[in-house]
């Protein structure tokens, strides 16, 4: 099976190159046809000039009638203007003029057309006797259409290609969303039965005299409550969560505090805020804590269980309408070529892992909180900083 998604960048490049080659071939071939047709039209105008000169020189009325009908009047498509030696307009053909137009207005239109003709083609001399005349002409409507046809065609193809691309992207995202929702609902369902059993065991141990004042029972209770939150998180996937004004500093500290007691003691955590401690932000607490945990767990893996994670909260935006949560680690960093890939489902650098943590975190922040999650800074060997942007 061809790994389409893993090679999508290369495939996109190949498709773009092929499209450019097709477009270039279309333009080149059309230009060849335009050149040939342009030469044919010039030959027709040259014949037109020779016929005009012959008709003036001829003494036979029959010859004059033949040339007038078969050569002069036969030109029904190419706009032509006849001038004297000083390029004063004498006559015109195939140039649309409004009815009942004044001579002044007619002269202005013909002079404007004459200027266009001078830019397109050099005139053809009609030399007879002591006087000289010039025939100016421009491309026929057919030739003009053929000249611009490939560009119109390419524009239409580009529009349809963009529509197809966005339709495919939308369809793919919709399919991914259905997979996410189905997986989340099934996970919540599977967690329900063992969680109910654990809750019963916790209540039994808490009531038993043999386990009075045992710290392990209280820690077990915390984990059971945490499992309840996790189950609620999974059950909320696919539905619109309720966002409330919450103390963002306290919510962040609670998420870090729970995680800090369950990871290596060689990882140092710090949480600081550059705004008042009671500053609110609109969040869904269970989902937001999930985001913080996923980012921090990813950082801990990058540091191989040893280093520091600094969390700093600050205002962002012109009117301080947003809250920025920067999570900086001292891990191995992310290559510049992979900064966007870290949020793709399935991307992971670990031997064991599904690569869903950051993808899920980004989906929660951007789809459910209308915020942003991105890599603000990363340097190989020094660490990475993720930024979460929330609305106040």
From TrEMBL:
Signal sequence bounds: none
Molecular-function GO terms, alphabetical: ATP binding; protein histidine kinase activity
Record-annotated Histidine kinase domain positions: 186-392
Sorted UniProt keywords: ATP-binding, Kinase, Membrane, Nucleotide-binding, Phosphoprotein, Transferase, Transmembrane, Transmembrane helix, Two-component regulatory system
Gene3D superfamilies in alphabetical order: Histidine kinase-like ATPase, C-terminal domain (3.30.565.10)
Any Gene Ontology biological process: phosphorelay signal transduction system
Enzyme Commission code(s) on record: 2.7.13.3
Coiled coil region boundaries: none
SMART domains: HATPase_c (SM00387)
Pfam families: HATPase_c
Catalytic activity line of the entry: ATP + protein L-histidine = ADP + protein N-phospho-L-histidine
Sequence intervals crossing the membrane: 12-32, 148-168
Protein name, entry field: histidine kinase
Organism of provenance: Adhaeribacter radiodurans
Lineage: Bacteria, Pseudomonadati, Bacteroidota, Cytophagia, Cytophagales
């Amino acid at each position: 099976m061809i790994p389409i998604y893993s090679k999508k960048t290369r495939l996109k490049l190949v498709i773009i190159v092929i499209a450019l080659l097709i477009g270039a071939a279309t333009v080149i071939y059309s230009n060849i046809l335009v050149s040939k047709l342009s030469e044919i039209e010039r030959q027709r105008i040259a014949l037109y000039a020779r016929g005009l000169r012959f008709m003036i020189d001829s003494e036979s009325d029959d010859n004059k009638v033949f040339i007038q009908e078969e050569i002069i009047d036969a030109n029904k498509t190419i706009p032509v203007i006849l001038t004297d030696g000083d390029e004063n307009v004498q006559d015109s053909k195939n140039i649309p003029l409004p009815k009942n137009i004044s001579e002044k207005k007619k002269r202005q239109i013909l002079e404007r057309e004459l200027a266009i003709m001078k830019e397109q083609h050099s005139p053809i001399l009609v030399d007879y006797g002591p006087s000289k005349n010039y025939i100016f002409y421009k491309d026929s409507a057919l030739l003009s259409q053929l000249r611009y046809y490939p560009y119109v065609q390419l524009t239409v193809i580009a529009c349809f290609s963009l529509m197809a691309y966005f339709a495919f992207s939308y369809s793919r995202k919709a399919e991914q969303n259905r997979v996410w929702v189905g997986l989340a609902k099934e996970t919540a369902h599977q967690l329900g039965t063992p969680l109910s059993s654990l809750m019963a065991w916790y209540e039994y141990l808490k009531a038993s005299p043999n386990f009075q004042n045992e710290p392990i029972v209280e820690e077990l209770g915390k984990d059971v409550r945490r499992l309840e939150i996790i189950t609620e998180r999974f059950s909320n996937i696919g539905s619109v969560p309720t966002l409330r004004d919450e103390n963002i500093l306290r919510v962040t500290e609670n998420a870090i505090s729970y995680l800090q007691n369950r990871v290596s003691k060689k990882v140092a955590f710090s949480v600081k805020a550059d705004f008042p401690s009671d500053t609110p932000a609109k969040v869904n607490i269970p989902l937001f804590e999930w985001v913080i945990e996923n980012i921090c767990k990813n950082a801990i893996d990058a540091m191989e269980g040893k280093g520091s994670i600094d969390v700093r909260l600050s205002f962002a935006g012109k009117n301080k309408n947003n809250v920025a949560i920067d999570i900086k680690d001292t891990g191995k960093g992310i290559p510049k070529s992979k900064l966007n890939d870290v949020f793709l489902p399935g991307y992971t650098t670990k031997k064991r892992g599904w690569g869903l943590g950051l993808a899920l975190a980004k989906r929660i922040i951007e789809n459910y909180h209308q915020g942003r999650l991105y890599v603000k800074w990363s340097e190989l060997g020094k660490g990475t900083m993720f930024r979460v942007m929330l609305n106040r």
